[in-house]
Design goal:
This protein has one domain (2-21, 47-404). It contains 13 helices and 13 strands. The relative contact order is 0.21. The longest helix has 15 residues, at 2-16. The chain is of the alpha+beta class and 406 residues long.
Length: 406
């Protein structure tokens, strides 16, 4: 573990060094000049999926393999103007949805050097973030504490509404949802600092797994600024205190932030192409695999789902029946197992945490990466969850996502 953390720290320091002087970096080509396939090209290959847990099973795992197995996983992302939309839109929705966009000046400020940006007050989340002895000895208790510290988690019915539709078995065909999953989201939600910075990152990637990513200086600024913003929140502060108490990292918050930047944003190879993926892109944005037919992988985030659904690229098709009777979801449920199509590609089963903040998910998956195994059976408030965490090699997050236990 000490070698893993040292390696992450070294890579982080190398990657961040010189960030204040863009003139010493080679100029990155403008985003519109990148080699990006149209959506028609990306999805012109073909296949459905099995179960959520099987999705990412051999993600290079603990054996340091750089190839993914044939197990299936989750979904992908597209952007207005860059992609051709494939697949049908919903026939109708309960309420009209509008694409959320931050004001132009907000996006412009996010692309400036991190030192030139404005962040939330450090004292805004001034709560106790020290882990207890019980939490240090029990990963489940630590994850549940993160849930309690998620001060930016949304409230169903107050901040958003969902219509979960009808249930189905994984193998059943047909759309069991007449409308969209999200029927309404408060206009204020995606304007919150950590949410807005998270959204600014979603258009930085080419979801084609076979395409090498090109990261501009402005995109690096967005990444660093996102880590800086979430580092001012209670979940990330708790994560830092926990890792320090476990002697996994030194007690240096600036070094910790550089490590987090490296862990989530450094590029690595996937699908035989170097520099084509990252933990952030895979887990939160999504990717398209084209080996042996088309597959979607990643796309484990509700914000990305909401935005793609609002833009007509996600077609929600109903929830998956739980293994136990009496556990069917309702409009208050924040752990859903669902089925949907993304740009015409079926995702048979996908569990997602709805309404949680970006900082909570980053903290949760990072904690399980450092302290847990492939399966992490934990309690998150009222929910029993298995946080699946797959490694790519020994020091990279191959994938991380929740699976409902019942």
């Amino acid at each position: 573990m000490e070698g893993l953390v040292k390696g992450l720290m070294d890579v982080a320091l190398d990657a961040i060094a010189g960030d204040g002087d863009d003139s010493r970096r080679p100029h990155s080509p403008p985003r519109e000049e990148r080699s990006r396939s149209s959506w028609a090209q990306v999805v012109s290959s073909g296949n459905a999926e099995e179960t959520e847990a099987a999705d990412e099973g051999d993600a290079g795992g603990r054996h340091g393999r750089n190839q993914w197995s044939t197990r299936k996983e989750e979904d992908n992302e597209a952007k207005d103007g860059d992609w051709e939309t494939v697949g049908s839109r919903k026939k109708h929705q309960q309420r009209p949805q509008k694409r959320w966009q931050a004001p132009t000046e907000t996006w412009s400020s996010y692309k400036r050097h991190p030192d030139e940006q404005e962040y939330m007050d450090q004292g805004k989340h001034a709560v106790d973030v020290e882990p207890t002895r019980e939490e240090l000895n029990d990963l489940s208790k630590a994850c549940n504490r993160l849930w309690e510290l998620d001060l930016n988690r949304l409230s169903p019915g107050k901040d958003y509404e969902i219509d979960y539709g009808r249930g189905k078995k994984v193998y059943q065909e047909g759309d069991m949802a007449a409308g969209s999953l999200f029927t309404w989201l408060s206009d204020t939600v995606l304007r919150q600092p950590t949410y807005a910075r998270f959204c600014s990152l979603l258009d930085n990637y080419n979801p084609d797994e076979g395409c090498r990513e090109v990261v501009s200086a402005e995109e690096k600024h967005e990444q660093t600024a996102f880590i800086e913003e979430i580092s001012r929140t209670a979940p990330i502060k708790y994560l830092f205190s926990y890792l320090v108490a476990k002697e996994i990292i030194p007690e240096n918050y600036e070094q910790f932030k550089r490590m987090m930047n490296s862990l989530w944003f450094n590029l690595y190879g996937r699908g035989g192409v170097s520099g084509s993926s990252s933990a952030f892109e895979h887990v939160f944005v999504g990717e398209i695999k084209r080996r042996q037919g088309k597959e979607v992988s990643g796309f484990h985030n509700w914000i990305q789902f909401y935005l793609e659904e609002a833009n007509g690229r996600v077609d929600y098709q109903g929830y998956i029946f739980p293994r136990r009777r009496g556990q069917t979801p309702d409009s208050e449920t924040q752990l859903l197992t669902i089925q949907f199509e993304w740009n015409g590609i079926l995702k048979s089963v996908s569990s997602t945490l709805v309404g949680v903040s970006p900082e909570f998910e980053v903290a949760l998956y990072t904690l399980c990466f450092f302290l847990g195994g492939e399966d992490n059976h934990v309690e998150l408030g009222p929910y029993s969850v298995n946080i699946k965490c797959y490694r790519l090699g020994n020091d990279k997050i191959g994938s991380a996502f929740p699976v409902a236990e019942c």
